[in-house]
Amino acid sequence: MKISRLVPDESGIVAWPTLSVSKKSVVTVGVFDGIHLGHQALLQRVKSLATQHDAFSVVIMFDPRPGVIHQYAAANHGVEPSRGEKLEDPLELMGVDERVRYMRQIGIDQVFIINYSMAFSAKSYRFFLGQLVGKLGMRTLVLGADAAMGAGRAGDVKAINLLAQATGVFELDMMDDLGPGYTRVPEHIVPQSPEHEGEPTDPTETMTKAELRAWSKAHNARKVRVWSSTNVRYLLSRARIADANAVLGHAHSIDGLVVHGEQRGRTLGFPTANMDVAIEGYVPADGVYAGWLVDLGEYTSDDAGTDQTTVSASPSLDARVAQGSPWRWPAAISIGTKETYIEQTGLNQRVVESYALNDDWLDLYGHRVRVEFTAFLRPQEKFNSSEELTAQLHRDVERTTALTQH
Fold first, then answer.
1. For position 299, what pLDDT does the model report?
2. 142 near 49, Cβ under 8 Å?
3. Of 140, 147, 149, 148, whose CA–CA distance to 171 is shortest?
């Protein structure tokens, strides 16, 4: 698989490479944040059609996410961030490299990562699709039923299909909405930790129609597909790990660098790997979780993403994250402030720390690690003593062991 990062010029024009003078391509366009089951089905469709027509399978995705750029511009009088400026995106489910890894597993031939900009977004969908036909030899465009592109998102599937029929130079392959239908989520997703132990359930399941209307109004809720990145964010914000993983079709994970913490866990007999604040992926609501800790290897300067033309998708990463990997351990994961010691230390920074269920001490300082979430165990709480906390940690380990056994 080839991976290329393309940066539009100041007018928003992308210098697309020519893939072939004779071979056509099957293309899809989107953000693909999280690579949930709907994304996976669409990518499989692209690969299947490309194989059927002896064409290239091509994915075009955006980094940063378009919503981040539009929000920045709206807050800065229409001015977009300068080139190279790294924007925080706390709602991003999955980093670009991880999305690319899933695409490589599916067998996509070519991934183009567009550095999304306001100038690029101002181009019409007709201009954009014309570029794909002329430069990439696009013969088929595969989109979901709710897709839209171009200035003002005017290029919905109806408009694109009319354009395809009128020009006859490409065809639209539209996939119907997949999954178990629709659900409602609050317009503004704010993390909220459950109050009780155990995996949270859907609070709307037992509501009457009147109660659901009242809940929707109170939360300014909107209708979204169950199989959607928006729904996954909402589920994770409520610590509903099992439901989120069911939509994703894989365990939700976050990546980050292991840094030195207070080393209090070591004194309690539970040494933890503490993640740096620069975490890649959506951090679920505060609480204690069962899951996995994966050593992705020692951090190097190549991980910094300084190469603006390609993005790494090393096959060695697959070996590290695979089930049964020697770099992978069950882990009890804590997210939040350390309530028991705040008064003593004065520190209330939100941290992610993982205790690997391993007999040997793991020296992971300076390594990048992945934390995968299997289930929610309990909310954070303040203990009266270190002894009480230690007793609870033993119970957390027992439950983690039970939940991660295969």
1. 81
2. yes
3. 140
What whole-number distance in Å separates Cα of residue 171 and Cα of residue 159?
12
Q: Find the helix or strand (DSSP H, E) in which 321 lies.
A: helix 316-321
pLDDT at 348: 52
C-alpha to C-alpha distance for 393 and 333, rounded to whole angstroms = 11
User: Is the preceding omega at residue 64 within 30 degrees of 0, hence cis?
Assistant: yes
* Token pair in block for residue 281: 């992926």
Q: How far apart are CA 129 and CA 28, in angstroms?
A: 11
- Cα atoms in the 13 Å half-sphere on the side-chain side of 319: 5
Residue 57's closest CA among 113, 107, 22, 102? 107
Q: One-letter amino acid identity for 176?
A: D
The pLDDT score that the predictor gives to residue 347 is 46
Q: Which residue has the tokens 């890649």?
A: 280
Q: What is the DSSP letter of 274?
A: E
The token duo for 323 is 């089930």
Return phi, psi of residue 201, to 5°.
-110, 170
Between strands 273-275 and 253-259, the pairing is antiparallel
Local structure of residue 304 (DSSP, 8 states): G
Instruction: Please tell me the number of Cα atoms within 13 Å of 372 on its side-chain side.
Output: 19
Going from the C-alpha of 299 to that of each of 43, 106, 108, 303, 321, the distances in angstroms are 31, 27, 27, 7, 16
Report pLDDT digits (tens) over 173-219. Answer: 999 878 899 999 998 898 999 999 999 999 888 899 999 999 999 98
What pLDDT, on a 0 to 100 scale, did the predictor assign at position 317? 86
pTM over 0.70: yes
Domains and CATH numbers, the chain: 2-175 (3.40.50.620), 180-250 (no CATH), 251-406 (2.40.30.30)
Residues in the chain predicted with pLDDT less than 70, given as ranges, are 84, 261-269, 301-315, 338-348, 406
